Amino acid sequence: MRKSAFMLMAVVLSLLLIISGCSKGSAGQTGGTSGKDDGKPVDGGTLKMAFGAKEFNDTLIPGLANDAFNANLVRMLFDGLADQNGKLELVPRLADKWEVSSDKMSITVTLNEKAKWSDGEPVTSDDVLFTYNSLVSPDLLKIGGDGGSALNTLKGYKEISEGKETSFEKTKGFEKISDKQFKLNLSEKDAVSVTNILTQRLLPYHILKDKPIKDWQNLDFVQAPSVVSGPYKVKKVQKPTTVIMEANNNYYISKPHIKEIVIQGVNVDVAPGLFAKGQLDYMMKGFNVADVQNLKRIQNVDVIAKPGDLFEYIGMKLYKPPFKDQKVRQALMYALPRKLMLDSIYKGNGVLLNGPLPEIIGAHASEKDGINSYDYNEDKANQLLDEAGWKKSSDGKRIDPNTNKPADLKLTYTQDSKTSQAIAESIKKYFGNVGIQVTLNPQDSTTKNAKLQNDDPSIDMWIGAWGGGGDDPRGLWASDAALNWERWKDAENDKLIKDTYASDSAFNADDRKQSLIKWQLHTNEQVPLLFLWTYYDVAVKSKKLHIPQDDLIDIGSLYNPQDWWLSE
């Protein structure tokens, strides 16, 4: 699932790898119990699935699965009180319903009466309290946990995370009403935190209650959970690349159609050959968008390519004089023929982005909402630069009014990325067409990112990519956000962001969407960075694998695998 802003830090390293690496006989019959594909789900078969990774970490429980491979495995093994569908709408899972109080400071949750663990034990309020206490415990943080940041608005979070308390029940963050009902009390009004809390996947209290957290990393249960609440359970782990799962026939929502799933870490370079040989049925993400046409040549597969949540941009250090004028930033947007660049560099496998939320996000603002599309317009770019006082000299070069010298902007990019190099060369060309010289500054990814974070004076602009923030703007866009590498300080922006989570109206989905749109319009006008595009996520699946269309909205995550089925 796409991460909230509070979880964004956990995916930074993987995103940086993406930024630097974007330039990047049959095994037997697989099928269901029916010999005919009549469009109706059938039971049985073995699904051979892969993620774009060579191996996985040996921690398969919530709180310790901090990479994309393990996180998707955990999605199949453990449910939360609620889940988010591809449109970021909350849907019930282990909880039957929840109600936010009129003052927006508490949530009363009623568990699904049918919800149970795979060993038949019921899911109870004790499981919820135990999970929340465990995830925030400093002992879990010491062995690789993330500190339970998704729970940071529960009363007592600070005390428990610092080891001063051990239970949210003692801090009044959790009140047990019955085995099937409880109340959660918040320390602050935060609409996004409701989603963060309810979507946290639960741990089985009756299995782990007597096991000290400091010893969890070495438990067989952590490496191969024997009791789960999700649609699949672990059958066998073959380290370091393979997990075999079998259907949880006690799954409280519905019995899964596919009997067994073999999940491997597979290098994307060898995946096409495995599909061609019938040795692979489904692979999520990892493919280079430029390879879509080649993938479509493989027999008996469907190539799914659609906009994801990862967007590419040109960053600007906004405290530097050349970028302080909004008209200059807007001019730079108009100066770029982004559609031509997208078609040339990524063969059209993406969509242009004009604001901070990609279109996969339900609250994405479009031209219908008033977003400026910044269509390529060299005349408009020149007009804005003239208005900003960036006059042309006799040789056609723009004079930076801040220095009274010819403008020369330094652009840093990852040196071993062919796509970044192509983008950099395009920027140099098209900014040059409006009189602005660009000096290219290729760096290795480690050096580049260190300089960005430390505001190295050698960097004016850079090529970057972000994603995974969901619809919570705080992680990237707030003035005090650690990942606000542009150092954008804008009081109106901070006010609009606060309206998206801390106002009473933010607890209403439609009203919150309007607040997000209003914020996006402001960002679109201010241009704190140069938005380029969202490129496609690419997945490949065998034609015999059937996945409901509603579960393919975000192909980077697993939705309802119990509803998938195989035909021969």
Automatic annotation (TrEMBL):
Keywords: Signal, Transport. It holds the Pfam family SBP_bac_5. PROSITE patterns: PROKAR_LIPOPROTEIN. It comes from the Bacteria. SUPFAM superfamilies: Periplasmic binding protein-like II. The keyword NADP does not apply. Gene3D superfamilies: Dipeptide-binding Protein, Domain 1, Dipeptide-binding Protein, Domain 3, Periplasmic binding protein-like II. GO terms for molecular function: peptide transmembrane transporter activity. This is Solute-binding protein family 5 domain-containing protein. It comes from Heyndrickxia shackletonii.
